[in-house]
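Quick check before the chapter quiz. The format below is the same one you will see on the exam, so make sure you can read both the input and the output lines.
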Amino acid sequence: MAVLVRDDVLLGELASVGSELALELLEEAGVDVDLGVERAVERAHRGFALAAGRGRRAADVDPARVPPGQYVTRDFPVLSAGPTPHTALELWDFSIVGELDEPRSWTWEEFRALPSEEITRDIHCVTKWSKLDTVWRGVSVDTLLEGIETAAEYVTAYSDGGYTTNLPLEDLTDGKAWVVYGYDGEPLEPEHGGPVRLLVPHLYFWKSAKWVRGLGLADHDEPGFWEALGYHMYGDPWREQRYWGD
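Here is the expected output.
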């Protein structure tokens, strides 16, 4: 479900608009930004949750699969801001840069030729909805990093539109993360992050960056877009790490 702030902007995913405009949009949405960034973002997302979260803790769902504070939905809510990027596939590439001997890059054809796998995982959004048994197809980050020697301990995922998010490298390896191009047997739709998005299902879903174009390896942790606005640096749904101090 989309949530309009104004005629040309959808609220919920302010990644592509920059921090100053993000705060303007929060204010337009009726959020008191004088509360501070962290409280403003939290207040806004309570509204997003009301708009997007149709589901409840269903009686037929094993409660052990649902993190605290989450509700199960059958929908796949779309919470977006600004125009969705549409990069022509002949211009698209994916790169690994930073703390490694030589950067790596794949064109769309080269990326699609890599070994892929089907992944079935539950996903959990910071706006408090959870969707169970989602089915994806994509390339393991382990495959992309194969043969790379690095002293890096952290990664910044970067996307079309200027969005970034930060993760420990160990949270992307050993079968824990993928770069996916298919959802539910179909090509991944742009509104859900296509042509490809990062999939890190054990963390809150904002860490699974939409429209991802690369990974930057680093020896230090650098906050991404939402993290700089008050979101938690790690984002473990089982520990309710939504915001600074959680």
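If your answer matched, good. The domain at 4-239 is CATH 3.90.420.10 (Sulfite Oxidase; Chain A, domain 2).
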